[in-house]
Structure formats: C-alpha cells, structure tokens
C-alpha cells in the first residue's frame, strides 16, 4: 500500500481548543491574534476564522489565555516546565529521564509531539490517576539526539521513504526523489533528518550515503557504525598528515628523556594484537627491591594539539572493537607502527616507574618521558604457560609462531616475580572493597569471508590479571600524584559512583531466585557480598545472567575533572594513562601530566570538562556498536543451526515473551508469548515469570529451557526461538 503524506486541512479545526492552546503554549512568551493562528493552522476561510475567534473568547473566559493587547493573546502558564531525555518505548509512547523526578515520567504517544528517542526535551508533568505516578506532555524539542539515521529505502514514482532500523523509531523519513543519491529500492542507506513540519506525518530528509544491500556482511557492519555516527575510514588529508610525520628515533630527542633501553622490557598482549600500548620492564636492584616500569606509547609526542590529526583523534575519542575488525582512533602508521611497542624496536614512551619490595609495597615512584627497547613479545597464553609450569618452555600449540621454543630465563623470572606481586596487589584491592568482574567474553572464529564458524569464551587468567594489576597501579598512582597536589590542579579522572540502592534491591530480588543473598549494611559489605556471589556463580548456568545483571546495577564509569573516586576498583584516585593509542582521555592525561611535571599552572577546567563529556559520550556509542556487532554475529552464527535444539537459560521475562540465552554459545533470542500455544500465559512481575492460566506451568527467570531457532533477521538484528519445553530430568 502506498503511503501518502497528509496535509490534513480537513482536520485542522477538529479539537480546535487544544490546538490553539498548543500553539500558544509552545511559544508561550509570544502573543498571537486570530489571523496569525489561522495562518499557523493553514486555514483562510471565513467559517474557520470565526471558530478561532469564538474559541479564543472561550479560553479567555476560562482564564487559560490572557489578552496582552487588543486582539492579541498568549497562554497563561500555571505549569512548571522541566527538561529531560526521552527514552522511547516500542509502541510509540515513552519515558522522560529528568533530574527533577525520582521516577521516569511517562509520555503517551499523543503527547510525544514529534520528539524522537534520545532527544533533549522540555515538558510539563501532572500526576496520573493510577498509583500517583507522573505523566507528562512534551512542549518543546531542545536538542535532537541525532540528525542521521540508518534504514532501508522504499522507492515510489516521485518520492521515497526510509524505514529506519530499530523499534524505538515510530516514523519513517520522507525523501524527495531528487535527494535519493542514486539509491536503489531496498538499499540500506544513511539518511539525514532535515525538517519536520508541524502538519506533516513524517520528517523530511536526504540520503547521505548508500551503505549496500541488506544482509551483506560489510553493509551490516557499516550500518552499525553509521547508526552511532562512527566513521570507518580516515579522511585523506588526515592519512596524508600522519604519513608525513617523522617517526624516527633521534639522538636529540633521546637526550631529553630517561634512557631505559638497557633495562629488560617485554609486552604481553592478545595473540592477534597489532597495537601494543604498554610494556613492562623489570630489574632486581642491589638493595633487593624490584624496579618495575610501566611503559606506555608516547602518543602525545606525535599527536600534537591544534593539528588535523589531533582533531580527528578527539572526534573519534576511542577505537571501536567490532567482531571482525578494529576501527582505530589513530591512522595505522601510528597505531600499528610508530607508537606500537613492537619487539626489538626502540620507542618513545611515557613511563611510571616504581620500586617495590616482596610485599608489593611501593617505596618510590617516578613519572616521565623515556625511550625503551622491547626485548620480547608474549601472547597471554605464552605468559600463562610460564606461570603455570614455572619453566621457560613454550609448547607449539601456545606459541605465537606455531613453533615450540624456550623463553629467556630472565624474562621467565620477571614474569613469575611480577605474577607474585600482582596477586598480592589484587588481594589488597579486594580487601579494600573492589568488585571482581571476571565476565566471560564471547568471541567468534571467523572464516576468510568473516562468517562465524565457531564460538569460544574468553576468560581472564593469571597472565591477564598480571597486566591488569600493573596497569591499574600506573593509572591509580598517576591520578594520586596530581590529585593530591595543592593547590588543586585540573586533571582528567576516571570515576565510578556507588550503585543506586533501588537497583541493588532489584538485583537482590532477581538473584534470590537462585539462592544468593546480598548484604546492604554498608559499602564494604555490599562489595564483599557482590564478590561472594560473583565467585559462587562461576561455572553455573546462570553465570552470564547474574554477571550481566550485576554490571547493569553498577553506575556507569565516566571521565570528569571532578574526582569522586572509583567505587568498583575501591580507589580514591583513578585515571586512564595506559592506552593512548586507543583512548583519547589517555592522551589528555599524558599532556596534563607533562604540563605539571614541567611546573606549569593549572589547565582550564571548563575546556577539559567538555572534552571529558565528549569522551564519555563517544565511549558509550562505541560500546553500543560493539554490542550490536556481537548480536549481529550471533544471529549470523545461528542461521546455520536452524534444525538443532539448544538448552538455554531464561535471561528476561516480559508480558510479550521470554528471552533465552543459549548455554553453549551465549546467543540470546526471544520466544514470543503468541507462539506459546499450549496454554494462555500471563506475566507475573513479582516472580519474573510467565504462568500458564490453566496448567499453572511457569517459565521463570533463570530457569533452563530447550529451544529451537524459529527465525533469524540480520537486518533487524532479531533472533526468534520456538520453545520446545523444559529439559527432561533423567534418572541414572
């Protein structure tokens, strides 16, 4: 059926009182006469104008409007207006998250008034009749969340519509035929939202880019990036600028730095890593203590403020890690070459160097620019082999090269001693109230066409934790060094607020179904009981569900100049210093640290706070894109397993169905309540369950069920299951 854009002139006068009030309230500081209101309504016949005059007099008598001068009226505002962010629900209604209200304010679909998901809006609120909760009406759109959308184009003779991806978009976008940018019917496109006139059903836009055909791998990956406004290539001038940089190691520059090229230094990274942000150095001192250096790529040496390279890095703010590719923050000449701490190469680094004793107590510290030489490169698996076997032999199945070899004895000794020290530091952190998240990561084995041929889980082992502890140490000590100075200096902190009490209560309600209990007495007991639960749940069917729900309970970590500490790590001071190749805040931290080491005065706080906000926002978008790419790959993987039955755990329960996460591969899909035909199932919110009206059979959060793939939709990122039932209990 062809969609038509209605001008709606016959409906202009219906419900006229509300329409006039809406016009006057929207421009509540402006006065209008009847002719101006008629013009806004696009009516000019005498009958309509007379009705407007009559309604104005009625509203004046009710004191809902006032006459500011003869024949001119404006709304009487008895309402307090608020601002907030709109979160659309799937059925056209939404909720506004506003600092003025403890609970989200419900907005019915007829009061959305052309606002879209994520928009910053002005609204007024009134109590709802049921349960005294607030309902509201949006009166103004302050700022659109985004101007570009991804969708599928539908071509007609003289116009087109773009059907936007996602269930939070309740309208499609009208595109004049001269603005389709050579798109063909059914193409996935990036479309701008240019305007939305008051009397139009759909906003107007223009196709900015054709991304390809739906379902094709590159199309879908590029669509994910475009959805969040993330680039997938560098502008030619930025590449050109980066390629023209002098990346040689010069004697003149070495003379300005601490020369640590003769100190044993090595990297430990994932097998497939291409950019090596960090290296560790190790030396046993004459006094029996250990000097351990955390050496970080000196990105700020190459990425100078005020250059197009710096502007591009700032705009990106982070590298984006999708299932089949990395979209780097810096061009390859820097990220994989000049800045990467590759083996057997000299590199400029920014270092935190500590002297420690056998109890992992820090006796001295030093921060500054260095030049280092990496003697060896290890994958985590190789370092783990040294830790587990306590010897130097690396078997071929763990070796990066595929050949068995013996690591240098001095490197193996360094790894073993640093593992000891890392374990002490980790124990101390846990004792201080840090939360231990060892969440399982889902990874895919891909063939040459980026098709998923297998799923595996990545867990954190001792070698990963060794690196983690020393990176945490450097980040913490750099933040302390600046944060404790007086007078106070502007700095970039990574902060993490305490969890919200209501979210904790909701978590307790869910995990109690599995027999876990949390202690809310104080922040120390909260963290220790969370740690206990996270440990107890390891290896159980509900682990991923409990891990995920616990992470959602936590506040979001963010960047700011206002230090409130880091709850999850139990640190009073924390920053990001150790990954400047892939995170812009680390570049800012390097610059500020050097600025203060040089004795300069405090930097402008407002400028850095704005940069912190931008970095936090870009990190959030990047995380969403990463999640979408995993979801896409899971659906692609399940396409080839349509006739198989899987055991899964119920990971979510709603009135429209149950969400099930498959135990063997963590793929999550939905069983629609409409397809559960053996009974009439009703949602029990208190028990997180769907309960059969006749049979009393319930499907509860955390229970195991058997499912089969019903439908896979790569474009909409939907995975639908058919419910087979509960696993049979077999007596042996």
Automatic annotation (TrEMBL):
- The S1 motif domain extends over 643-724
- Specify one Pfam family: S1
Annotated EC: 3.1.13.1
Q: Which UniProt keywords apply?
A: Cytoplasm, Exonuclease, Hydrolase, Nuclease, RNA-binding
Q: What CDD domains does this protein's entry cite? A: S1_RNase_R (cd04471)
A biological-process GO annotation: mRNA catabolic process
Example of a GO cellular component annotation carried by this entry: cytosol
Q: Which reaction does it catalyse?
A: Exonucleolytic cleavage in the 3'- to 5'-direction to yield nucleoside 5'-phosphates
Tell me the InterPro entries matching this sequence: CSD, CSD2, NA-bd_OB-fold, RNase_B_OB_dom, RNase_II/R, RNase_II/R_CS, RNase_II/RNase_R, RNase_R
Query: Which Gene3D superfamilies would you find in this protein's record?
Result: Nucleic acid-binding proteins (2.40.50.140)
Q: Which GO terms describe its molecular function?
A: exoribonuclease II activity; RNA binding
Which compartments does it reside in? Cytoplasm
Q: Which family, according to the similarity comment? A: Belongs to the RNR ribonuclease family. RNase R subfamily.
Known function: 3'-5' exoribonuclease that releases 5'-nucleoside monophosphates and is involved in maturation of structured RNAs.
Q: What is this protein called?
A: Ribonuclease R
């Amino acid at each position: 059926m062809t969609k038509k854009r209605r001008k709606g002139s016959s409906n202009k006068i219906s419900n006229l009182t509300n329409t006039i009030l809406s016009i006057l309230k929207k421009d509540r500081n402006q006065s209008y006469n009847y002719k101006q209101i008629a013009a806004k309504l696009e009516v000019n016949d005498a009958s309509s104008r007379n009705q407007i005059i009559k309604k104005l007099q009625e509203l004046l008598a009710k004191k809902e409007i006032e006459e500011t001068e003869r024949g001119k009226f404006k709304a009487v505002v008895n309402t307090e207006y608020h601002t907030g962010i709109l979160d659309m629900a799937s059925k056209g209604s939404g909720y506004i998250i506003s600092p003025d209200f403890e609970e989200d304010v419900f907005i019915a679909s007829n009061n959305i008034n052309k606002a879209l998901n994520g928009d910053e809006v002005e609204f007024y609120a009134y109590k709802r009749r049921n349960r005294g909760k607030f309902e509201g009406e949006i009166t103004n759109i302050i700022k659109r969340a985004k101007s570009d959308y991804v969708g599928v184009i539908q071509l007609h003779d003289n116009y087109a519509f773009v059907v936007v991806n996602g269930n939070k978009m309740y309208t499609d976008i009208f595109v004049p035929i001269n603005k389709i940018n050579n798109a063909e019917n059914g193409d996935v496109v990036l479309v701008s939202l240019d305007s939305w006139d008051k009397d139009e059903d759909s906003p107007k836009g223009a196709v900015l880019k054709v991304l390809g055909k739906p379902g094709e791998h590159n199309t879908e990956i590029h669509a994910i990036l475009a959805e969040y406004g993330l680039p997938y290539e560098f502008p030619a001038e930025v590449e050109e600028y980066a390629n023209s940089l002098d990346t040689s190691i010069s004697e003149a520059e070495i003379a300005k730095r601490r020369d640590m090229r003769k100190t044993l230094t090595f990297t430990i990274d994932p097998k497939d890593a291409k950019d090596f942000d960090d290296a560790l150095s190790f030396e046993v001192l004459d006094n029996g203590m250990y000097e351990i250096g955390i050496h970080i790529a000196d990105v700020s040496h190459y990425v100078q403020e005020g250059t197009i390279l710096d502007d591009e890095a700032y705009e990106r703010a982070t590298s984006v890690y999708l299932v089949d590719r990395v979209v780097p923050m810096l061009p390859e000449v820097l990220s994989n070459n000049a800045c990467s701490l590759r083996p057997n190469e000299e590199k400029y680094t920014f270092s935190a160097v500590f002297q420690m004793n056998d109890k992992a107590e820090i006796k001295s510290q030093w921060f500054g620019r260095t030049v280092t030489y990496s003697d060896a490169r290890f994958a985590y698996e190789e370092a783990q082999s040294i830790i587990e076997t306590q010897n130097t032999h690396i078997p071929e199945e763990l070796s990066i090269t595929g050949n068995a070899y013996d690591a240098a004895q001095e490197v193996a000794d360094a790894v073993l001693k640093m593992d000891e020290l890392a374990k002490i530091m980790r124990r101390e952190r846990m004792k201080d109230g840090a939360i231990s998240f060892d969440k399982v990561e889902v990874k895919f084995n891909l063939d040459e066409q980026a098709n998923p041929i297998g799923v595996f889980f990545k867990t954190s082992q001792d070698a990963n934790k060794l690196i983690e502890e020393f990176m945490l140490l450097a980040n913490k000590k750099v933040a302390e060094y600046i944060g404790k100075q007086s007078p106070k200096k502007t700095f970039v902190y990574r902060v993490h607020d305490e969890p919200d009490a209501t979210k904790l209560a909701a978590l307790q309600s869910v995990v109690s179904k599995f027999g876990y209990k949390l202690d809310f007495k104080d922040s120390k007991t909260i963290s220790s009981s969370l740690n206990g639960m996270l440990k107890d749940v390891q290896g159980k069917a509900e682990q991923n569900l409990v891990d995920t729900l616990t992470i959602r309970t936590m506040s979001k970590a963010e960047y700011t100049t206002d230090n409130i500490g880091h709850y999850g790590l139990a640190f009073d001071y924390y920053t990001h210093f150790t990954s400047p190749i892939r995170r812009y805040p680390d570049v800012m931290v390097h610059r500020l640290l050097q600025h203060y080491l040089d004795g300069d005065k405090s930097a402008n706080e407002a400028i850095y706070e704005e940069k912190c906000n931008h970095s936090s926002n870009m990190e959030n978008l990047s995380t969403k894109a990463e999640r979408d790419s995993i979801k896409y790959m899971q659906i692609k993987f399940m396409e080839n397993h349509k006739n198989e039955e899987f055991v899964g755990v119920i990971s979510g329960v709603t009135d429209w169905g149950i969400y099930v996460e498959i135990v063997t591969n963590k793929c999550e899909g939905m069983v629609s309540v409409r397809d559960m035909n053996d009974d009439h199932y009703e949602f029990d919110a208190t028990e997180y369950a769907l309960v059969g009206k006749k049979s009393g059979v319930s499907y509860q959060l955390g229970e195991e069920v058997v499912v089969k793939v019903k439908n896979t939709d790569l474009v909409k990122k939907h995975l639908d299951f058919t419910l087979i039932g509960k696993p049979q209990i077999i007596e042996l």
